[in-house]
Amino acid sequence: xxxxxxxxxVMTLDADGTEIFDLTSSTRLTGVGGGHTMSWLGxxxxxxxxxxxxxxxxxxxxxxxxxxxxxxxxGASQPDFTSxxxxxxxxxxxxxxxxxxxxxxxxxxxxxxxKK
Length: 116
Description:
There is one protein chain. The chain has about 120 residues and is an all-beta fold. It has one domain. The chain has strands spanning about 1-5, 10-15, 20, 30-35, 35-45, 45-55, 55-60, 65-75, 75-80, 80-85, 90-95, 100-105, 110-115. Strand 12 and strand 13 form a beta hairpin. The mean pLDDT is about 95.
């Protein structure tokens, strides 16, 4: 399933290594694939310790909770749910005012671009 959205998500990386991932103002995350559709609004603020160097990044700290609201699967409303996000690691590139971060695991991959 290919997912798009969450525009308006704010990621702050402080000089002390603190990462704040804020879904408060993000748009719907929408997925399409395999004859199915799903979407939801992600809400919550996640905090990790962050380190990035030489095109590689890592998060550390306890898993963080986020909530999905206004969930719709194949056109039918579903109950809200929470999910726990562990710290991740991956690669990054910077170009102009864009930071593109990728996570590649055996069962999951994600690429996100943040604009300054």
